[in-house]
Amino acid sequence: MQGNRVIRSNLSRITSLARFLFSAAYTKPSEFSTSVIKTNVFTPTNNFTFPFHFSSCSTSNLETLNAPKISILDEKDCSGSDNDDEEDIVATDVKQLKISDEGVLKDAKTLVDILREFSHKRSEMRNKIEECGIKVSSELVSEVLSWVRNDWEAAFTFFLWAGKQSGYAHSTREYHTMIAILGKVRKFDTAWALIDEMRGGETGPSLVTKQTLLILIRRYCAVHDVGRAINAFYAYKRFKFAVGIEDFQGLLSALCRYKNVQDAEHLMFCNKDVFPFNTKSFNIILNGWCNIIGSSREAERVWMEMSQRGICYDVVSFSCIISCYSKARNLHKVLRLFDQMKRMGIECDRKVYNAVIHALAKGRLVKDAISLMKSMEEKGVAPNVVTYNSLIKPLCKARKLDEARQAFDEMLQRGISPTIRTYHAFLDIIRTGEEVFGLLESMRKMGCQPTNDTYIMLIKKFSRWRQFDNVFKVWNEISENGNGPDRSSYTALIHALFLNGKLEEAHQYYMEMKEKQLLPEPKTDELLQDWSYNKQFVERQRASLKAHQPQSGQNTTVISKKSDQDREFLQQPETRRVYLNVEGCLVCLRFIPFMVAVLTVATKHMGLGTGGKECPCSDEPWSWQ
């Protein structure tokens, strides 16, 4: 009898703990990027007012679809940026492409609508495309592929159809875009088949370039398949390309870009006889530890290694190490290296200034940061959007909204257009859903379209607030205004739903993700598979209990109430008799392993981000309109 009470008590504790775990809060990473972003100049006007009460400005009306477009990066700057964004694992630069022909835009939208409407009916999709009678051009193919790049089957179906149209042949750009899309979903065999097709046989000219192979190298690095990335590098010789130190540095850069820094460093040392050490090779490794991994300890080790081997530091070396200490909030070392750089006679570039300004702003030395910004301008180094982002983001985190608004206002007055990172800094501190959607609308009016990173951030924010209507509103906007949800978007939504107790919905989107052949992360797989297994286990036990219910009822002893009345209460101590529901107890006992499993899984995945409730209150009123 007492054992049953203990079981019920423990079960109550487990249930309470489970509810607590499901309501734990998402932890949002905050990282700073020192990458230089090209901007379009805004011209002041009085026709549009930004909702922060900053200066008025507008942008030119670009006749383009509201979606980011793909163009392959020419990744020559080894300093790079700390771009660990898993959404953009395509090694591509996302930018807006201007299309002047309205007919191409209309045709592209028609094709995209067909591809999305019949995404699960491939045969009907091909028939509808044939019936639309659209003339294919290189510009049209690039536009459509950029729109459907997160649905590789639709993209590949359209790519094959376009290649068969008379009067059109794929150029290198279209092949590169399609290979990048295939590599993103690990369809490497199909990607290699396209490369063989690009060779053109014995008579036609080959369209294969070093950039073609570099795209696949980056794809392999993105999925951490270092061996195949190196094999793709060796394929340079198979295609009769001369391999030089710059090509090897491209391999090192690709490895470091996707956090394979240790493998890149090992590869550099193993090939020191073929590709001798130089400053740029070490800078790639240094940047990997500094800005990609963010390990100041490993960065110091590589820094000392360069000194011991006689490798000269340059402005890129100092930019990397200063940026690393800036992110680590080590202002003392930032200023010491900044002084050392000046003593060595190395001219500071914009990236160094940006890193120091960011460190000063993080250290709440705003006046010093602004003074340094003026000093860099006096030396002929003009501030850019990254400079202002370096100032605005720490100010937002420190809740110094007036200073952040002033910096934003000054940036607009200089004709520097804000980037998505600028808006992310303000979105991060917004406290209500109305403010969020108000700022999103203002972003679009300013010509800055939200990216999947933006939507992922908002999904996590709204799930923290338990505002799931807004979560799904954002989810719908991904498809309506962007290129559709990708792997990272699904992962964010699934974790948000699961860790807030919405298990069935999380499993539904997990299955939808797999149907689209978007490979879930291993942690997502483990999370949902453990839950699915335990759910099936409980259902089997419940069915078994129902099957044995008559036997359980027959074995239950019915105690007459008269037995208590016939006793002499003065001769015996008073006792309490508990009448147990046998079936209910068995269900509780069967349910305990399931709850333990759920708790184990939830505890294991606390690092993925949880979903606790944050009070959407604001220290300062905001007016977005």
From TrEMBL:
Keywords, in A-Z order: Repeat
Gene3D superfamilies: Tetratricopeptide repeat domain
Bias (Polar residues): 549-560
Protein source organism: Citrus x changshan-huyou
Biological classification of the source: Eukaryota, Viridiplantae, Streptophyta, Embryophyta, Tracheophyta
Annotated region (Disordered), positions in chain: 545-566
Name by which UniProt lists this protein: Pentatricopeptide repeat-containing protein
Domain of life (superkingdom): Eukaryota
Cross-referenced Pfam families: PPR (PF01535), PPR_2 (PF13041)
Ranges: PPR repeats: 278-313, 314-348, 349-383, 384-418, 486-520
Family as reported in the entry's similarity comment: Belongs to the PPR family. P subfamily.
